[in-house]
Amino acid sequence: MNFPVVGSNIEVQSYKHNGTLHRVWEETIILKGTSQEIIGGNDRILVHESDGRSWRTREPAICYFSANHWFNVIGMIRDDGMYYYCNLGTPFTYDEEALKYIDYDLDIKVFPDMTFKLLDEDEFRMHKRQMNYPPEIEVIMKKAVDELISWVGQQKGPFEPGFIEYWYERFLHYR
User: Fold this and answer.
1) Is the pLDDT of residue 1 over 70?
2) Active site positions, annotated
3) 108-145: per-residue pLDDT in tens?
4) In Å, how far are 92, 144, 159 from 134, measured between CA atoms?
5) Residue 2 lies in a domain
6) Cα(75)–Cα(95) distance, rounded to whole angstroms?
7) In a domain? residue 14
8) 107 among the known binding-site residues?
């Protein structure tokens, strides 16, 4: 698999199970790019939704993508602490166009005190019916949710104290 070069600026694209484009983040600066993980940073970037709406992110963020895990993590740096938004979806792929993954609706929001909330279970059930998710997707998502919750509890990976701050300092060198 190709992977982006450190310092390059890439687009991130999420798709739905049926192949339709779901959301596009215009600019993410690559801070680490290997075949196993990609770490990027962005700040107040333009995001395009599939329904034609666009909006800007509100704060600096460090994005963690894995080739081995069915989730990605966005660490958002806010005045009142570190928040994390975790998307449940396929491991990433990367081509010259963009970093890509399939979003499977479920999300976990993690608060500065490391409490969390599972979001969009209704959306997952609805899309499961509408897009005919195969039975193994539900099994994989359950396992991914459990793994992600375990990472939060263990403060592992992007939840490790200092992880987001370290990569944010690197991000500032490219701005």
Assistant:
1) no
2) 23
3) 999 999 999 999 999 999 999 999 999 999 999 999 99
4) 20, 16, 31
5) no
6) 24
7) yes
8) yes
Per the structure, the complete domain to which residue 55 belongs is given by 9-172
Answer whether residue 103 shows pLDDT above 90: yes
Q: How confident is the model at residue 52 (pLDDT cuts 50, 70, 90)?
A: very high
Cα distance between residue 13 and residue 28, in whole Å: 11
The 3-state DSSP class for residue 124 equals: helix
Q: What local confidence, expressed as pLDDT, does residue 11 receive? A: 97
103 in a known ligand binding site: yes
| 79 annotated ligand binder | no
* Tally of CB atoms within 10 A around 55: 10
Residue 123 covered by a domain? yes
Total domains in the fold of the chain:
1
